[in-house]
Amino acid sequence: FYRAKSPSSIPRFLVCGPSNSGKTAIVTNFERQTSTAQTHTSIEPTTILAVLPPSTRSSSARYRSLNDPQAQALQPLLLVDTPGHAKLRRHAFTALENSTSPLSGIIFVVDAANLSSERRDDESISGLSDSASYLHDILLALQKTSATRKKPLKLLVAANKMDVFTALPVSMVKGVLEGEIARTRETRARGLATDGAEEETDILGEDLGVKFRFDVLEEFGVEVEVIGGNVEGDELETEKWWDWVARLL
Ligand code: GTP
Ligand code: MG
After folding, report:
1. Which atom of ligand 1 is nearest to 36's Cα?
2. CA of 41 to the centre of ligand 2 (A)
3. For the chain, what is the radius of gyration of the CA atoms?
């Protein structure tokens, strides 16, 4: 039924991001392609198999004739859902580093309705700082491994929960994350300087003099795109995420 492929050659995507942003909800939606089931906070990574919806054509199938049986075949993909809790984030870094086959892409999920720099009573860190510092660390890990990659790695920032009326519009999500990552980068650099361990390679973008924007990572073979959507609410919005995935298949 699936194209004859060994499991190791099925395209694999890492799904990471802060706790409660909706990673498991998105992965479940991708798996079932219906509205989501109840999720629980994740404590270990899980890999699920999904297929590209027939309405979304992968880039490799795009030029095939519709009568070509290969074009009708289901395109499988694997999604590695990781826990977002600060103490369990090593699972995501392990998945980044110990890849037997290179990842096809990374999906970093943020809650667009929880990107305020104000800390909520039940939180020890604001939603914005938490999301930005985790994303900073993922991007830095990718910067450090850039020499091992033959082609650019794509990272999707999935700005989830767009159905919530307090959600930031996607254009602002990009700006606030870039601004907060810039601040995180400066704080880290100051820490490194006082430790006497400052190294260019430990600084995201390697040059503090250049304003931080996601574009600066292109030099290190990392291409970031921010796209909004939601897997709950009256109208689910996942099409643009699927298009991003399909372009990498
Ligand atoms: P961890 O496993 O703890 O890292 O969290 P997670 O990122 O997997 O979050 P999960 O998928 O469990 O979702 C967290 C909460 O957000 C749940 O209560 C979901 O119902 C809710 N949620 C997820 N996606 C959406 C969405 O698009 N819109 C709304 N309104 N709620 C959502
Ligand atoms: Mg989860």
Report:
1. 20
2. 5
3. 18
How do strand 46-51 and strand 76-81 relate by DSSP bridges? antiparallel
What distance in Å separates the CA atoms of residue 15 and residue 233, rounded to the nearest whole number? 21
Q: What is the pLDDT of residues 34-86, one digit of tens each?
A: 766 678 898 999 999 999 887 787 777 666 666 666 666 788 999 999 999 99
pLDDT in tens, 10-29: 999 999 999 999 999 999 99
Closest CA to 106 of 213, 7, 239, 245: 245
H/E run at residue 184: helix 170-195
Whole-complex ipTM = 0.99
What are the pocket residues of ligand 1 if the criterion is a CB atom closer than 6 Å to any ligand atom? Answer: 19-25, 39, 41-42, 83-85, 109, 160-161, 163-164, 230-233
Q: How far is the CA of 194 from the centre of ligand 1 (A)?
A: 39
Domains of the chain in start order, with CATH, are: 7-246 (3.40.50.300)
CA of 60 to the centre of ligand 1 (A): 32
DSSP E strands, 74-152: 76-81, 105-111
Q: What is the best residue among 23, 34, 39, 240 to mutate for testing ligand 1's pocket, by most ligand atoms within 8 Å of CB?
A: 39
